[in-house]
Amino acid sequence: MAQTKLKTDFLRYVCQTSSEPMGIEVDRAEGCWITDRSGKRYLDFISGIGVANLGHAHPVVVKAVADQAPRFLHVMVYGEFIQETQVRLAERLAQNVPRPLSVTYFTNSGTEANEGALKTAKKFTKRKKLVAFKNGFHGDSQGSLSVTGRDVYRKPFRPLLPDVTFLPFNEIKSLKAVDRRTAAVIVEPIQGEGGVNLPDDDFLSTLRRRCDETGALLIFDEVMTGMGRTGNLFAFEHWNVVPDILVLAKALGGGMPLGAFIGRPEIMKTLSENPPLSHVTTFGGHPVCCAAGLAALDYLIGNKLPERAERLGEYLTDRLYKLSEIGGVKDVRGKGLLIGFELETANLTKRFVRNCRYAGLVLGWTLHSDTVIRLAPPLIISEQEIEQGIDIMWKALSQELKK
Ligand code: PLP
Q: Quick one: pLDDT at residue 367?
């Protein structure tokens, strides 16, 4: 089929980040489905990379946006004016995170939220060293990239932040590197881009203890795992370990750009003094995004979507185990509706993902691993839609294995 003018213009005028963009020309998206401009429908098994937990364009989110937009859009830089949707979302988050976390700083994205969390930790502890984990991912701005555990992405941008120590994820003996010079340890409770790596049962609690012994702050980056995706509102609840700072984004805005970091009052207070205005943003906590985020959070909790994620995650995992029996599959692992589906080779993974897309199923592999496909469908997905996806995956995999 000839390339459309829109695609030609996309390739010409929109900065490209990959040599092979998926290139679906989006006409509309609703629930678990994306429709392209030719009318072809795609089942979305990655939710815009963990954003559309309520599905695309959920009516409660659309209504919240439509109600707020005509009242006011941006009025003043963050933190100066009182904007109701922002206050109510911060309040609702405080009601749903464990004490003593209660104060939220809103940003526009995950990487900005991590930047803010790292700066806050350095300012509060008056320390400089940061500890992070190999294969972790925290975003692409320079601070977040500095703590992202994959050299190939850091190398072209050096020098980055100094004094960052990377430890192997799940290796308890290496946690002694967290010391009294350490301002913060940043970790994803489940590594997403690293290939959906789950923590061992005692890893996060031992890390928590080590931070308490040394006075280092513990930052949980739940940008990918938060907002119900893993079967609890936040992934840390699975291991009963509470961080000093919780970082959220992606699904937080219900499809609108919104990030946040949440901490105890005395930690968060450091941003307003010595000097005041030491961390500011123009658009962070935009009133329309906060309206969308509040509607999404209320819907998520009111309709028990975390529980649904747990139940349907088990269902999908079972179906993937069954699918594995035909061969080519190395592992199936995950929590709730964040599942890593690992194939035997990178080449097979690439062809499998491409075949699925041609057949109308959107999948994507993870940034740090070219054999792990991350499945993260909307939490509202039905069993029937899961079956449709599995059917496409089954055909795509058998087609490759026959070659
Ligand atoms: N942290 C984690 C765990 C992520 O998965 C991501 C994005 O994939 C980020 C941070 C960065 O978020 P954003 O792309 O909104 O800057």
A: 86
Q: What is the pLDDT of residue 144?
A: 98
Q: Is the CB–ligand 1 distance for residue 194 below 6 Å?
A: no
3-state secondary structure 16-44: CCCCCCCCCCEEEEEECEEEECCCCEEEE
CATH fold of 61-302, please? Answer: Aspartate Aminotransferase; domain 2 (3.40.640)
Q: Range(s) for CATH 3.90.1150.10 in the chain?
A: 2-57+304-401
Atom 13 (ligand 1): residue with closest C-alpha?
Answer: 110
Residue 365: the pLDDT is 81
Distance 247 CA to ligand 1 centre (A): 10
- CATH topology assigned to domain 2-57+304-401: Aspartate Aminotransferase, domain 1 (3.90.1150)
DSSP string, 81-111: S--HHHHHHHHHHHHHS-TT--EEEEESSHH
- Ligand 1 contact, 137 CB (< 6 A): yes
Q: Is 148 strand, coil or helix?
A: coil
Mean pLDDT of 19-33: 96
> Nearest CA to 46 among 291, 370, 356, 383?
356
Rounded mean pLDDT of the chain? 97
- In residues, how long is the chain? 403
Cβ of 139 below 6 Å from ligand 1: yes
Q: What is the number of other CB atoms lying within 10 angstroms of the CB of residue 195?
A: 21
Task: Write the pLDDT tens digit of every residue in 343-358.
Answer: 999 999 999 999 999 9
Q: What is the pLDDT of residues 181-193, one digit of tens each?
A: 999 999 999 999 9
Q: Residue with structure tokens 């995650």?
A: 313
Numbered ranges of CATH 3.40.640.10 in the chain: 61-302
What's the CA gap between 334 and 224, in Å, rounded? 13
- What residues contact 151, with CB distance under 8 A and at least 6 apart? none
Q: Cis peptide leading into 98, omega within 30 of 0? A: no
Q: Is the pLDDT of residue 1 over 80?
A: no
Running DSSP on this structure, what letter comes out for residue 216?
Answer: P
Distance 344 CA to ligand 1 centre (A): 26
pLDDT band at 106 (very low <50, low <70, confident <90, very high): very high
The two tokens of residue 291 are: 């309206």
